[in-house]
Structure formats: structure tokens, C-alpha cells
Design brief:
Helix content: 25-40%
Bound molecules: S-adenosylmethionine
Number of domains: 1
Largest sheet: 10 strands, mixed
Strand content: 15-25%
CATH superfamily: Vaccinia Virus protein VP39
Oligomer: single chain
CATH architecture: 3-Layer(aba) Sandwich
Shape: globular
Length: about 300
């Protein structure tokens, strides 16, 4: 990890050039695990990874992980244990992911047995597809039994971030949260932050990306997320006003984001399928910018 201190940083598109190899590695991981990236997620991911440093051997919570890319990338970078926490039920995580990674439930109900997924897939298939599905399931089970390329373990925890009693206090090296915490109402967020900080070891770091707002907080309906001013982030994350921040460059950074050909030309296909998303009908028109918050747990 670099010189650690608290900070608030609107994510500049320069991050993409600074981390070319990592950007490519993240893009390359999408296909084998069947993932599509949100329009600003590469920025969020490389900012978090830049601030985290080498994750090898670390115990990390991915807060509001969903089935997002970061948790899998951290395992591939040899993180020791990644707790994947989300209120969304991921107990039926695919056989493809189970074949590639060591995955476990924190509690018995957090991850269904692989056999239950095979049976469900066979039931859902029709006619001759049933036979194909059964063969695929069998192949899947064999792959799951093979040794894994990555030493770490993903711990699925289908739980709200406000109460994570199965994770011990002072036990984590880092908490990462990719575009997740803004889905909590402002009055709820300090409770979430306090719960996450409690789980960190002294010296551990919380790295969260959210949406930035220029003059007043506002709610972005299509993504159902809040965008926050610098003052609101300071208050919600209990950070002093003296910490470094680049909100003063909000307009310049927004202009370079709007002009970013690389992000504009690589929008995931799901954006063009509806008008009810962060980039309606796939037309590049960013309404907000991602911002990173780094908060260190002091002794
Ligand atoms: C936009 S998604 C991002 C998912 C993932 N981080 C990624 O990189 O794709 C936000 C996720 O945060 C989760 N989330 C937000 N607040 C939460 C909370 N208080 N407890 C549990 N999950 C939460 C939501 O359920 C959702 O899955």
C-alpha cells in the first residue's frame, strides 16, 4: 500500500493510462466469468487496486459485492480470503465460477450445494436439452472437484452491511466497495461505514467508490444511487475537512470524462437494450463522476 492517509478523490480517466496492464487484465477476466462492466467500473476498479497495493495474503471484505468483478480479480491476485457481502442472495452462484474459484458460504444457507444447481438446471431444460444439461452438469461437477489455480477463498455472505456479526472485529486488512455504498440512504450510510470500520484491523483501509455531486446531493433514479458533495462525504464517512480532495477540479474532470473515447466506445451491450439505466439506450452521456473515499483505521 502507498503512503496511507484519508482522502477523497474524483476518479480521473488518467487512471486508465496509468494502469494499462491492469485494465487489460480486468477486461480479459470478464469473458471467462460471463461479466459485463458498468460504464465507469474500470475507473473504480483500478483506483481501488492502486490504493490497495498487492492483495496477496490479505483478508478483505468486498462490501456490496454482488457478483462484481473485483472479488474474483482479488482471488486471482492471491488474496487469502475475500468476504463477498451483499443483501442480494448469491447462494446459486454458477458452476462456472465454482469450477474456477474456491467458494464457500459463511453460513450453510449462503451457498447452495453444487448438486442443487445441477438439478435446477436440468429441471429448467426442455426436451433433448435436458440430456445436454445433465451432461453439462456432470462435467461441471468434475471441474469443481479439480484443484484450483488460486490459493484464496471466496466467502459468500448474503447479509446487509449494517450487521455482519459473523465477521470478527479488527480482523480485516481492507474493505473494498465498488459503487455500492451510494445505494444506502444518507442517514443510513454512517452506520454502514462504522460497521465496516469496526471489522478492520488498526492500520487497515476502507476503499469505497461512490458518485460525486458538484453543489448538492442528488439521487440518480436509473441507477438508484446517491451522488454526494465533498462536504457530505466528509460528514457521512466521518472525515476531517482538512484531508486531500480534488473536488476543486470537478468541472475539468467532468469535461475529460465526457470526452473519454475509451469508455465511450466500450460501453457494455446491456446499456443499449433499455432506456432505464445509467447510460440510456447506450448513448454516452455521463450524468455524474465516480469518486473514491480512502479511510484508514487508526490505532
Ligand atoms: C451497483 S451494485 C455493485 C455491485 C458490485 N460491487 C460490482 O462491482 O459489480 C451495488 C450492490 O451493493 C449492494 N448493497 C448496497 N448497500 C448494501 C447494504 N447496506 N447491504 C448489503 N448490500 C448492499 C446492492 O445489493 C448491490 O448488489
Amino acid at each position: 500500500m502507498d503512503e496511507l492517509g484519508d482522502k477523497i478523490e474524483i476518479l480521473s480517466v488518467d487512471l486508465l493510462d496509468r494502469h494499462r496492464q491492469q485494465v487489460q487484465a480486468l477486461r480479459d477476466l470478464c469473458a471467462p466469468i460471463g461479466h459485463q462492466l458498468g460504464w465507469h467500473y474500470l475507473l473504480d476498479l483500478v483506483w481501488i487496486l492502486e490504493n490497495l497495493g498487492d492483495p496477496a495474503g490479505l483478508q478483505i471484505v468486498d462490501a456490496g459485492a454482488g457478483l462484481g468483478l473485483l472479488q474474483w480479480y482479488l482471488l486471482e491476485q492471491k488474496a487469502a480470503r475475500v468476504f463477498s457481502v451483499d443483501r442480494v442472495d448469491r447462494s446459486e452462484v454458477t458452476l462456472t465460477l465454482r469450477a474456477r474459484y474456491r467458494i464457500q458460504g459463511v453460513r450453510p444457507g449462503d451457498l447452495k450445494p453444487s448438486m442443487a444447481i445441477v438439478q435446477k438446471n436440468i429441471r429448467a431444460a426442455h426436451g433433448s436439452q435436458k440430456f445436454v444439461s445433465a451432461l453439462r452438469g456432470l462435467a461441471g461437477l468434475l471441474l469443481i472437484a479439480l484443484p484450483k489455480a488460486f490459493p484464496g477463498r471466496l466467502m459468500i455472505y448474503n447479509q446487509d452491511l449494517t450487521s455482519m456479526s459473523e465477521i470478527a472485529d479488527n480482523s480485516l486488512d481492507a474493505v473494498v466497495a465498488v459503487s455500492a455504498l451510494e445505494h444506502n440512504a444518507p442517514e443510513m450510510l454512517p452506520g454502514v461505514v462504522a460497521e465496516l470500520m469496526r471489522r478492520l484491523k488498526p492500520g487497515g483501509v476502507l476503499l469505497a467508490t461512490l458518485g460525486a455531486a458538484r453543489e448538492r446531493d442528488w439521487f440518480h433514479e436509473p441507477s438508484r444511487g446517491w451522488n454526494y458533495t465533498e462536504e457530505t462525504l466528509q460528514r457521512l464517512f466521518d472525515l476531517p475537512p482538512s484531508i486531500p480532495s480534488n473536488y476543486g477540479c470537478y468541472d475539468e474532470l467532468m469535461a475529460t470524462l465526457k470526452d473519454c473515447r475509451e469508455l465511450r466506445e466500450n460501453l457494455s451491450s446491456f446499456y443499449s437494450q433499455s432506456g432505464d439505466n445509467g447510460m440510456p439506450w447506450g448513448v454516452w452521456d455521463p450524468q455524474y463522476q465516480p469518486v473514491g473515499v480512502r479511510k484508514v483505521k487508526h490505532q
